[in-house]
Amino acid sequence: MPYVSHADLGGRNGFGPVVPEPEGAVFHASWEPRVHAITIALGATGSWNLDMTRSARETLPNYLDLTYYEIWLGGLEKLLIQKGLVTLDELIAGCTRYPPAPVVRVLKADQVASVLAKGAPTERAATGPARFRLGQRVRARATPAEHHTRLPAYVRGKTGVIERVLGAHVFADSHAQGLGEDPQWLYTVVFDAPELWGSQAAAGHRVSFDAWQPYLEAA
Amino acid sequence: MSHEHDHHPDHSDLSDIERRVRALETVMTQKGYIDPAALDVLIDTYQTKVGPRNGARVVARAWADPAFRERLLRDATAAIAELGYSGRQGEHMIAVANTPGRHNIVVCTLCSCYPWPVLGLPPVWYKSAPYRSRMVRDPRGVLAEFGVTLPPSTEIRVWDSTAEVRYLVIPERPAGTEDLNEEALAALVTRDSMIGTGLARAVGGT
DSSP secondary-structure letter at B47? Predict the structure, then answer.
């Protein structure tokens, strides 16, 4: 089955205006903070990684019809079933019917502050020299990936300039597929708007994205 | 969802999504995968402890202390940690400063990447299809929907946070704030000004 992400929205038309909100508004229903908290707590069990979570969410077929925390909930239910931690009939019934699967750890209340403060840094020792240097012109890979990727469609095949070299980081594409961390050099690549959007794009407008080395080729 | 519904064992007063979340939480707890007390701490953390006032203090310090500003622009992760903010979704921070000729805006076109330790959880619009689709293509049009108009000569730089680096915009310090202390300065720093969809408040303004 081809891999389809419904989350790659950069540059697409037809979604209407942005609706700003006051600063205090974060959650809009009492179940939303619970889904957020359950997602973090289950992430701590070590049953999947953040890139697998993003992949589970972006491939929900009705992604664009769902609210944000509905997407989180759907992604979480999908991962739990995929990883054998729960069955669909248990989720429908709302009670356990089978013994639990083993998990690496269970997040306890007194560990929350330290776990959040520590986070999950993704920088790793580089396994080789960086292929690209500051100021070098590079082209983003043109072919779509057949798996989770962080190379947005709107930059594919476009030429930009290496603006920052950010060290070697866990490679999302490999990590999401369960292929290990596979650290790769990460760069900030900046594009002039006309390269992305054509000659009618506004002058003095530039867009950057953060690109792992396998996304790029020398231009 | 509060526990005020516990006296209705059939949960018949709950919406479909509330029932679904309740079922998930119940099964996860029964299986021993989650500690309900940890959920309470997580919910409290992201509702009361982590939010854009953290980032406002970082910006105010940068406005007031040139040496801190320099450290912030050189190694934002370490500089932000000086104020006690670190960790999840802020592991690799970069601060980008607005100047009279240049305005920075942050977006995540692929999902909702956002610097939690300094800004808290993202607002709905930041995660929405309109913002994610249009900000990279038509930043001035989106800014207008926030009531922001920049001079035509201002360069606009949009940062799409596609990897695990998180961006914090340092807005321009408003005029007439020379005599304000850091606390008063922080009150001028809005969430939107640290995303780039707004400017810092003027003194005495809204």
Answer: I
